[in-house]
Protein: Metallo-beta-lactamase family protein
Amino acid sequence: MTQQIPIGSDAVADEPAGSDGTHALRPDVAYQRHAIVNVAYLGPPGAGDRGWVLVDAGVMGSRGAIESAAAARFGAGARPAAIVLTHGHFDHVGVLEDLAAAWDAPVWAHPLERPYLDGSAAYPAPDPSVGGGLLARLSPLFPTSPVNVGDRLHLLPEDGSVPPLPGWHWIHTPGHAPGHVSLWRPADRTLIAGDAFVTTAQESAYAVVVQAPEMHGPPRYLTTDWESAERSVEALAQLEPELALTGHGRPLRGPGLRQALHELARNFSAVAVPPRGRYVENPVRAGDPEATRSP
Structure:
């Protein structure tokens, strides 16, 4: 039976939203929640045109809010140097095509995400049988068609660097998606984890609304490779992050973050993996024929 790992309020890193509509976590790291998902804005306030980077691209309908926040935070007309993706699921690329075109911005992602970002393939179908709440049951209704930013797509280099983000590194954290990456800045131990783990019960509509901080594995209805997902969490726990922003839920910091993340890594099968499900019994890994399907 799946469980959750409670998190004390002292571990929550949230600050009130500023005048630009974002929550500042570091002088050059802020985030904004769009319905069910977070996006990150990397760069100091007032950075100007091409002086900042957007991480992930929200859900459908969030373009105006992202553009407004970017203009308020970085300056009117300030375009990002790039859009960096943790992965290409619908709730992380909802307005990617529009933003990339409007800003004439390159898009960076892991090579294994390429089929889902150049219009050539769709992810495996969501699994509503994993339980946990309304969002899991509704998952077959989520958009599944891939986006196509192939003419702007750049693949992250093998050396782990993130060209538009000096000082940051990408870490391959598959399981939830074949080319899922997390972003890590060792100088201040800041982690942008995407959906490698999340801090809310993303399967439950109630939990998503309430946003009570809990440590969870990746959203179950879209995770296709639980063994890889477990290894990814173990790798991130070994980093001993000081601050973590996830794709869903509130950001965490300090000893409370590290304790909960280590507990998730130790007890991943009990805490994260659903008791049954299509991909529990029949995992789909990168390179499997089932990993891509016709769009």
